[in-house]
Specification:
Layout lengths: L1 E3 L6 E3 L6 E3 L6 E3 L6 E3 L6 E3 L6 E3 L6 E3 L6 E3 L6 E3 L6 E3 L6 E3 L6 E3 L6 E3 L6 E3 L6 E3 L6 E3 L6 E3 L6 E3 L6 E3 L8 E3 L6 E3 L6 E3 L6 E3 L15 E5 L6 E3 L1 E2 L2 E2 L9 E4 L8 E3 L12
Length: 285
Amino acid sequence: MDITGTNEDDFLAGTIGSDRIDAFDDDDTIIALAGNDVIFGNDDEDLIVGGAGNDTIDGGNGDDLVFGDAGNDSIDGDNGVDVINGGNGNDRIIGNNDNDRIFGDAGNDTINGNDGDDILNGSDGADVISGDAGNDRVFAGTGNDTVSGGGSFDQLNGDAGNDLVQGEAGNDTVFGGTGVGNDTLTGETGTDLLIGGAGNDSLSGGDGSDRLIGVEPFAPGFRSIVNEVDTLIGGANGDTFVLGAGNEIFYDNGNNSDYALITDFNINQDFIELPESTFIAYYLY
């Protein structure tokens, strides 16, 4: 069924079938119900609820609040400062311009913040999240996620799972996340801070003078888990490999299999950071 709004503030309700809903003008509320619906917002501030089904939603210009609900939805926030929740299902969500907040919710979602300083949260599932332009904050959530920051200065958190997290351009903070997971973190260009967390992580700074920390320094005790082996690759320029902080040594669980493997240490430009009065055992290969 085709449903079209007016120039007023409308309440538009869909049917249990597959509807096409066009909000037209002013601040509208759209509740689509079941079915594979196609929904268009407008240039004002809309509330859109896709309902069950595989919906296609375009928020239009304006600061919109969009809920995909259950189903594999395709959502484009368009222009405006939008808040988008994909709901259950494998959703594809684009924030587009401005500073958006996007929540993938349950399912294997693909999220692209596009322009603006966005906050992106994948939640459950194996998500693919890209911040793109702007200073973005990304929380991948549970699952084995793939995260890329894009340009500018991003804060990226892989959260739980075995994650691939890439800072790309800009001076980024790249964190593998709390909980045990074997993460692969890459800073790429810029002066980056890479923090692995618990698990056997691989950290690569790329270009720039980077700081690499294999464990999670915010956790009580600052220590690795038993049998944790982290691989630290500084890359180009002078990098700092942090193996301790305060009075704590990170790799000290009374087990010789806990260690950091630094593959490209350059004595002329790189640094190892440890607590004062620390004895260190090291091996050269």
